[in-house]
Amino acid sequence: MTTAKRDTYTPESLLAVAVQVFNERGYDGTSMEHLSKAAGISKSSIYHHVAGKEELLRRAVSRALDGLFAILDEEQAREGRAVDRLEHVTRRMVGVLTSELPYVTLLLRVRGNTETERWAMDRRRDFDHRVADLLKAAIAEGDLREDVEARLATRLLFGMINSLVEWFRPDARGADGAEIADAVVQLAFRGLRIED
Question: Looking at the record's lineage, which domain of life comes first (predicted)?
Fold first, then answer.
């Protein structure tokens, strides 16, 4: 029976289980025993593939962060007016969040208690600053209102997007990721754009 379990086990399926357990119990509240029970494999099988739960955390938050940073490398995020690039980044952030929901949820819940969590928070801050710079550039180019402080506008934009982890469920009936991205862009940029 152990062989059959091991045959169906993959590092990717273990990562998915770990993310689910981390999100349910919290990273600090999760033991290797919890992970082995949830995965249906022995602790030694887990250690055969990863050094421990912190490696699983790093892999999980890396998946979310890599998805977010990849957006900034897309042509639409690098070329054109800053406001158009910002809208593209906003739309794509919603896409990454909805497609990688468990991983982004975990990223948003790290608190800095471990080296991996501090690393993830630093990378997330770097991403946030790069998006904030785009917003500032759009204000400087005269496309967004300057009477709303850029830092506040950035926090509100991230707050709207990040709140999706609290209520969006891909398997529930309702708006899909593209519809949500459209709504976020409409709500955020109608209020921020300078009216002609």
Answer: Bacteria
